[in-house]
Structure formats: C-alpha cells, structure tokens
TrEMBL record:
<dbReference type="GO" id="GO:0005737">
    <property type="term" value="C:cytoplasm"/>
</dbReference>
<feature type="domain" description="Amidohydrolase-related">
    <location>
        <begin position="51"/>
        <end position="400"/>
    </location>
</feature>
<dbReference type="InterPro" id="IPR032466">
    <property type="entry name" value="Metal_Hydrolase"/>
</dbReference>
<protein>
    <recommendedName>
        <fullName>allantoinase</fullName>
        <ecNumber>3.5.2.5</ecNumber>
    </recommendedName>
</protein>
<dbReference type="GO" id="GO:0008270">
    <property type="term" value="F:zinc ion binding"/>
</dbReference>
<dbReference type="InterPro" id="IPR002195">
    <property type="entry name" value="Dihydroorotase_CS"/>
</dbReference>
<dbReference type="GO" id="GO:0050897">
    <property type="term" value="F:cobalt ion binding"/>
</dbReference>
<dbReference type="GO" id="GO:0000256">
    <property type="term" value="P:allantoin catabolic process"/>
</dbReference>
<dbReference type="InterPro" id="IPR050138">
    <property type="entry name" value="DHOase/Allantoinase_Hydrolase"/>
</dbReference>
<comment type="function">
    <text>Catalyzes the reversible cyclization of carbamoyl aspartate to dihydroorotate.</text>
</comment>
<comment type="similarity">
    <text>Belongs to the metallo-dependent hydrolases superfamily. Allantoinase family.</text>
</comment>
<dbReference type="Pfam" id="PF01979">
    <property type="entry name" value="Amidohydro_1"/>
</dbReference>
<comment type="pathway">
    <text>Nitrogen metabolism; (S)-allantoin degradation; allantoate from (S)-allantoin: step 1/1.</text>
</comment>
<keyword id="KW-0862">Zinc</keyword>
<dbReference type="InterPro" id="IPR011059">
    <property type="entry name" value="Metal-dep_hydrolase_composite"/>
</dbReference>
<dbReference type="InterPro" id="IPR006680">
    <property type="entry name" value="Amidohydro-rel"/>
</dbReference>
<keyword id="KW-0479">Metal-binding</keyword>
Amino acid sequence: MFDIAFRGNRVLTPEGLKSAVVLVKNGIIEEVLPYNAEINAQTITELGESVLMAGLIDPHVHINEPGRTNWEGFDTATKAALAGGLTTLIDMPLNSSPVTTNVASLEAKRMATQNQLHTNCGFWGGLVPGNTADIEGLIENGVIGFKAFLTHSGIDEFPNVTEEDLRKAMPVIARHQLPLLVHCELSTENNYPPESHPESYSAYLASRPKEWEDKAIELMIRLCEEFGCRTHIVHLSSSNSVEPIKKAKEKGLPLTVETAQHYLYFKAENIPDRGTQYKCAPPIREKSNNDQLWQALKDGIIDFVATDHSPAPPELKLLEEGNFKKAWGGISSIQFALPILWTAARDRGFQLTDIADWLSEKPAKLIGKADSLGKIQKGYTADLLVWNPEKDFEVTETLILHKHKITPYLHEKLYGLVEQTYLKGKKVFENGNIVSLNSGEIV
C-alpha cells in the first residue's frame, strides 16, 4: 500500500502536462500512472484542476543567520518559502556573521538552523581573498559550491575577489566539479556623479551601468574556458551580455546563468524616485533590456530564475528618506517567487512547463540534485507543490511571512495561488497555513 496518492488533471511531468496519479511511499515517488489507474493508498488527494508539480528550488537566498537574524533568519525565511511552494533553498555565504568562508563559520550556520528549518536548506561556501586553503575543508563539510563577488558585496567581511584570487581558487573548485557562482560587476570609483540626486532612480541606474556587468562576464567566460571550472552567473541584468554567453555555451563551456524575478517583472521606467524598496544590484533596467532577458530565457541562454531574496530591516532600506545611494540594496520576494514569475510569463505566452523548468528542474541541476529533486518522476523525492494558476490575489502585509514587510511587490495583483506544499510526501502547508513545523533537512 502506498502512503499517499495524488490524482489530478494537471500534473507537470518531464514529458509535459498530463492527467495522472502520483504514488508516494516513504517519501519517494514510486509510480506515475494514468489518471484512471486502480490505486491502493492510505490517503488519496484529489487535485481537480489544480496543478501538481515538483517543489520549487531557489539556489539564491540570503537568510542572514547567524549574526543578522534581525534581517531575516531561518525560521521566517523557511516559513515564507513553504508558503510559496519552495521545498529547497540554498543559503548564500553572506550576509550572516560570521560569513561562511571556513569550516568553523559553516558549523556556526548549521548550529543556527536547529529547530528552525521548515523547508530543506543547503549552503554555498564563500570565496574571498586569502581563503583558497579553506575550499577543500568546506567541500568536505558539505557546501554545494562557492560564491564570489567581483565588486563590493555590501558587507565588509565579505570582500570581492580579483582575477588573481580566481586563478588560485578555480582549479581547486574545478577539480571537485562544483559550481562557482559569481556576482558580475567590475565597478569603478565615484560611480555617483557629485551633482546627481540620491533620491533619483535614474541616477542610481546610471551609477551601475551595463558595462560593469559586461566586463565582469567577459572575464568569467575567459576564466571558465581556461580552467574548465563550472561557472554560474547570478542575477543577470544586462542584455548586452546575452550574445557573449550564447557564444560561450555554443563552445561547450560549463557556463550557466540565472536572472531574477524582479528583472523580468519590473522596468526602470515605472520605478518612482525615492522608491528604495526597488533597489538591488545590479539594478532593474529599462523595458527594452528586460524584453531581451525574456527572449534569452525563452531561448535557453538564461537557464533559470532565482529570487536573490535579500531582506533588510526598515532602517536600512531608508523608505522615508528615499536615498538610493545610501539604502541597502536587496529585494525580498521568496514567498512570491512562483506567482511573480507566472504573472509575467503568462502575459508573454509561456506555459506551465516553462515554470517547472525555470523554478524546479534547472535549479536542481545547478545544486547537484538533478537525480533526486526537481521532477515528478519515479524514484524522485516527493517534494511537491499544488497551486492554481488561474487564481489571483493581492500581496498584502498580512500575507507576508518574511521577517519584514518591505517588498516592491506590496499591493501587486499576482496570478498563481499556492494551495499546498509537501516535503517527502508530508503536507507542510495548506491554504495559507503552515501545518507542520521543523520538517526541513540540511541537503
């Protein structure tokens, strides 16, 4: 007898959308059968027209614990994730304190998760100047890969690397066949002209030009080819870099790319002055640029979409002051990753299968879990999500489970209501309520 059976008319499988029954035992998908198959299960969940898909995977999340738990923390981040249908998060090595750049700091982070993981979570190690000797220890202790910045990270404890640093570290990372994630901006000094107005979004946009990204990505493509190191470009915002990335992929380089929901949903023309809730780095660019990102996503040049959930307390976002130059750069959105992307994608003619590809299957490949997560397929972990693509809702402060209610999506009307989330076949979220706490594991 199976533990649970899911029967629905819209089951997202690797073969596409189908009417099917998904059978789960001991947390594993045992069979995917035709809709009318005879089944023997302790629980049968009838899904009707709701969509069943593999749980979402977000490999770009700043949880900020230990040390900056007043910014977010494992408890609030993983609760918000469950409410959004996310079943696996990978936490960035900043903005916690200590930053995750050696084994001791990784252990401190693991200790901080105790009794606070409501969804699954893994960790990136940090690559900073001088810690090449720490790479193998971090790998032995389970990091998924490494993250580096080519410009100031915003956190002094996590300085940016240089080409010289990368040349030392990339051969070590390549030997273990793990990915190196890179924030690609090569910045110049005095990027804010003295006469610019700090409340102006156009001034902020001009202060972080496309060229910063393009030069950094050019560098990483060159090093990727030289060392054969798996290289992943995070939160691509410059459409100028799409063609070089395409050519690098055509050469067979181990290069992957993500963009973020905010670069696809918003456009610079509509961002108000003083609207520091929109500040992120790289910045949200113009409609014409973002249209090209959509095309690159359609063409598979951009592999998937990740939130770069980067929360901060109100005093750092400077909402009342409206100072883009001084405000913390980061957008909170993890709870709404799916409806944000679907709302924008549906208007452009994309299908539900695209969403599964961008938010489940492709991220699973990056984190080395392509054989166990990200698909509804026999033998895969039964981390699952039930949602209704036709239902809409308004983002309100009451709904938000992030520690702080600051988000540019506040009061946006979004399509795609998450109804249920399952970890290993166990229901953990249903209709607005978390029904099982501490169900997550370290991956």
